[in-house]
Model the fold of this input.
Amino acid sequence: MSRYLERAGHISRLLETQFDLIHDRPASDVELGWRRIYRSLGRTPAGANLMPVQDDDNIMLLDAYTLVDDLAFEPGNPDALIDLLGNARENARQIRNILNHEIWSTLNVSFLDMKSKRLKDIWSGQPQEFFIASSVAVRTFCGIADATMYRDHGWHFFKLGQYVERIQLTCALLDAHITLFPTNDHHWEIHWSDLLGVCVARAAFRRLQSVECQPGKVLDFLIGDSRLTNSINYGLGEIQKRLEVISGNSDTGSKNTAAWHIGRTRALIEFDWPVHEKGNDTSIQNLLKQIRTDVLEIDSQINNTYFNYPIEFKSG
Done:
């Protein structure tokens, strides 16, 4: 449930940011924005070529309609908002007896509201507002969960899923972004500001740094900052804390393997990242891929230990 919702919020913010590009930027910027979204999701767009057509706003708008529909309402897309919210609700329904009314009703209303709509229903009005509302709904759900859930293992698994998914999505997004907007080319500064917006980090960055979004400083913030809740470093720390609580005093092999992986991954951030070669995009992307690999391994160990373990039957 937690992972589906984290992904739904991420897709909503991607589309919210993309509408800003559609409204205010040239066709080439809009095209690069679509490429960033689809590259980060590892998905091939359906029905559009992602090629800018100079001075033809009608074609660009048609492509936008097709791509937004693919990411929001396409039933064959596992990353579509409607599918993500539906899966989150189905998982919640299966544990309805232990969810409080506020958590269930918030998720249920959000899903039913989305289910009742199609893109044609919102396109003629303010479609961007719809995706802003979707993002806010996910954050509202998580806020209610933070405020009302009992701090037992269910709560810690909820947070564990949230941060596992967030790190995966952030690493994939940064990897795709660096490919399209190299760090040594400051011509793309406005796109680095967009990246901060997707990661809900623009206001914090400007308060601590400046309105000038230098690629190196943006990456330092999104990867290494330990106080930014959407940074990779913060997420890894949260995973480590949740694992320590859930595993308790057990001394299983799976627990030790997961602990080893999270320790090694945090070391990549704490020791390797601060001294990485500035401007070497290949090394940065390799680091991001290593983090994703390690977090996937941690996720696999969690599943094997707590969900997919073999059932042993004792005779007699």
Q: What stands out?
A: The two ends are 39 Å apart (CA to CA).
